[in-house]
Design goal:
Blueprint (H helix, E strand, L loop, with lengths): L7 H12 L3 H14 L4 E7 L5 E6 L9 H4 L25 H7 L2 E7 L6 E7 L2 E2 L3 E3 L4 E7 L6 H6 L3 H18 L4 E5 L4 E5 L6 H13 L1 H5 L1 E8 L2 E8 L4 E2 L5 E5 L2 E3 L2 H11 L8 E2 L1 E6 L5 E2 L10 E2 L2 H18 L7 H12 L41 H6 L18 E6 L3 E6 L2 E6 H18 L5 E11 L2 H9 L1 H6 L3 E4 L4 E8 L7 H14 L10 H10 L11 H13 L13 E5 H7 L4
Parallel strand pairs: 1-8, 13-16
Antiparallel strand pairs: 1-2, 2-7, 3-4, 3-7, 4-5, 4-6, 8-9, 10-11, 11-16, 12-15, 13-14, 17-18, 19-20, 20-21, 21-25, 22-24, 23-24
Helix pairs in contact: 1-4, 2-6, 6-7, 9-10, 13-17, 13-18, 14-16
The structure holds adenosine-5'-diphosphate (ADP) and magnesium ion (MG).
């Protein structure tokens, strides 16, 4: 066969194959055009999942009559002034969307610029452009697309159900709306509004949060931490959710680069890094982040649909994201998400109380509490002996009626401890509600944070055991344990060989005073048997510290006195990341009085 130049329509159809994968791609290209045209309101109407009809109207700058033809030509754009592909500040620049869409559908382009007396319309059918006609239309642009893919039937076969396609359209509209809060967005499928977002004025960060709240949900806005960080010429803003607000997939993780929604491996990796210590690996935080990068440090021309970008300094971007999130999470201290309490109330409302049996007998669980100046012993201070036998009077009066008046809870976000139930849960009274702490989870987290902090600042302090602990193991376990003795020493555990089947533990971390050394060592052996030997213990700090904490003092099932309970609460307030355990589960739940009152029909 001889070589021939392909006709224009065919070239456009080939290009359309890359740009227009499905109806949502059309919506994306057209809405981006409207955003580039400085529209303040963009409305999308779709029928049959976009297959039958897509109509997008905007109140943007419009297209001049003499340029309407050109807008439909391939490689015709108003957005590249020079020849620089590395200085792009608009969403579009390839000049092929309208040409591609026109090549595979029936397209109507209507536009009117400010000052024009009338609007003009051009029709395209399967790539053939008709003649200009005057029509009545307000300032802005209206693009109508019918019978998408009629000219490329092979593509039609790949379309999913109208519902699924509509879902994709909704998704892309939402993403674009998140990045442009000052623009109003509406999506209608002929029957109902799927999206109706009014333009939000005012300061950007604030309007951004409002927009995110209306798209991702109120719970996100309530449980998100603000991000505002800068590294040289790169700016990162947006919101990240508390670890306790998480999902089973990454669908609620949004990244925008210079106003463009992108999916980027670097971003997902950075998120995993930032949340590693606070979430199990199969849980995903909710995040919406906006990167602003100088256009010349970014290649946006790596994907035909422009959903991927390439950074000239990827490490810097990654470092910025991880650093900013870690900082925000540390600042959040002991905060855990409010959604947990919401869940408690939802399930409480669902369960009904059997009326024939009457209500359970509540005992008065009032309890002595420490004065504010006396914040109780520090659970971690070296002179604190958490496992010392508790004075009988203190233990018992936690469960008997007492005449103490209501405590002064001011200044204590996690409140003043009033009781311990089931030797596991500490109940505290706050100024406007109650807090229930899972003492085991909380203590585990505190130990984790302490160990991490010590490792970062000069090492873990060890404490010699008065009587070294001799632990008998099988020879191979002993060998495996001893092979890691250097690493264990770094974590504060000094052990050495004592014959082939025995190890002797001489020192343990000072902050784990009085831990059950025998079972700790056995647990570590099991851990080493089960886990990858190549992985350094420090990289599995969450698992290891959980084990260490587990065998020290405040585990579940241990009775705490008032001072111990309150010092646990104060420690939690003072230590970052204590709102959740290492797997993203909460360490405490806060129930507000107003919600409790509602539960009992008092409100
Ligand atoms: P690109 O967006 O890459 O420039 P398109 O094919 O999407 O290419 O659009 C071609 C041109 O048509 C744009 O550069 C712009 O000048 C004009 N245009 C398209 N849509 C609109 C719109 N909604 N409002 C104003 N101008 C538009
Ligand atoms: Mg475009």
């Amino acid at each position: 066969m001889t070589i021939r130049q392909l006709p224009e329509t065919l070239v456009n159809r080939i290009a359309a194959g890359e740009v227009v994968e499905r109806p949502a791609s059309v919506v994306k290209e057209l809405v981006e055009n409207s955003i580039d045209a400085n529209a303040t309101q963009i409305n999308t109407l779709v029928r049959d999942g976009g297959r039958a009809e897509i109509i997008i109207t905007d109140d943007g700058c419009g297209i001049a009559r003499k340029e309407l033809h050109l807008a439909l030509e391939r490689h015709a754009t108003s957005k590249l002034s020079g020849e620089d592909l590395f200085n792009i500040s608009s969403l579009g620049f390839r000049g092929e969307a309208l040409a591609s869409i026109g090549a595979i559908s029936r397209l109507k382009l209507i536009s009117r610029r400010l000052g024009d007396e009338e609007a003009w319309m051009l029709e395209v059918e399967g790539g053939r452009i008709g003649d200009l006609e005057p029509v009545a239309h307000p300032i802005g642009t209206r693009i109508e697309i019918r019978d998408l893919f009629y000219a490329t039937p092979a593509r039609l076969k790949f379309l999913k159900t109208p519902r699924t396609e509509l879902g994709h359209i909704n998704e892309i509209m939402k993403r674009l709306a998140m990045a442009h809060p000052s623009i109003g967005f509406a999506l209608n499928d002929g029957d109902r509004d799927l999206l109706s977002l009014a333009p939000i004025g005012g300061e950007l960060q604030n309007s951004c949060l409002k927009r995110l709240a209306s798209i991702i949900g109120r719970e996100f806005a309530e449980n998100a931490l603000e991000i505002n960080a800068e590294r040289e010429d790169t700016l990162l803003t947006g919101y990240v959710g508390l670890p306790t607000l998480n999902r089973g997939n990454a669908k609620m993780q949004f990244l925008f680069v210079n106003g463009r929604p992108v999916r980027d491996k670097l971003f997902y990796g950075a998120l995993r890094g930032a949340y590693r210590d606070f979430l199990a690996s199969d849980r995903y935080p909710l995040v919406a982040l906006f990167l602003t990068v100088p256009p010349d440090k970014l290649d946006v021309n790596v994907h035909p649909a422009k959903i991927e970008v390439r950074f000239s300094d990827a490490n810097k971007v990654r470092g910025l994201i991880v650093g900013a999130i870690k900082h925000a999470l540390a600042e959040a201290g002991h905060r855990a998400s409010t959604t947990i309490a919401d869940g408690v109330f939802a399930s409480a409302r669902q369960s009904h109380i059997p009326s024939s049996r009457g209500y359970p007998n509540f005992i008065n669980i009032e309890k002595k509490f420490p004065q504010k100046e006396d914040q109780g012993p520090n659970l971690f201070s070296s002179n604190n002996n958490c496992d010392a036998p508790l004075a009988a009077s203190v233990v018992n009066d936690g469960f008997s009626a007492s005449t103490s008046e209501s405590p002064d809870t001011s200044g204590f976000p996690l409140g003043v401890a009033r009781a311990q139930l089931h030797e596991t849960y500490v109940i505290a009274q706050t100024s406007d509600g109650i807090v229930i702490v899972d003492q085991h989870a909380a203590h585990e987290r505190l130990v984790h944070e302490r160990i991490k902090h010590s490792l970062e600042t000069g090492g873990i302090r060890r404490q010699g055991l008065l009587i070294p602990e001799v632990v008998e193991l099988d020879p191979s376990s002993a060998e495996r344990l001893l092979a890691r003795s250097d690493e264990l020493l770094e974590l504060g555990i000094a052990l050495e060989s004592f014959g082939s089947e025995t190890v002797v533990v001489r020192e343990i971390p000072a902050l784990l005073k009085n831990c059950d050394v025998q079972s700790l060592v056995r647990d570590l052996v099991i851990d080493f048997d089960e886990n990858d030997e190549a992985l350094a213990l420090k990289d599995r700090l969450g698992d290891i510290t959980a084990k260490l904490a587990c065998h020290s003092s405040v585990r579940a099932g241990r009775r705490l006195n008032a001072d111990e309970m309150n010092s646990l609460l104060r420690e939690m307030e003072a230590t970052p990341h204590t709102g959740q355990c290492s797997h993203g589960r909460p360490t405490y739940v806060e129930l507000k009085l107003r919600d409790i009152e509602r539960l009992f029909g008092r409100r």
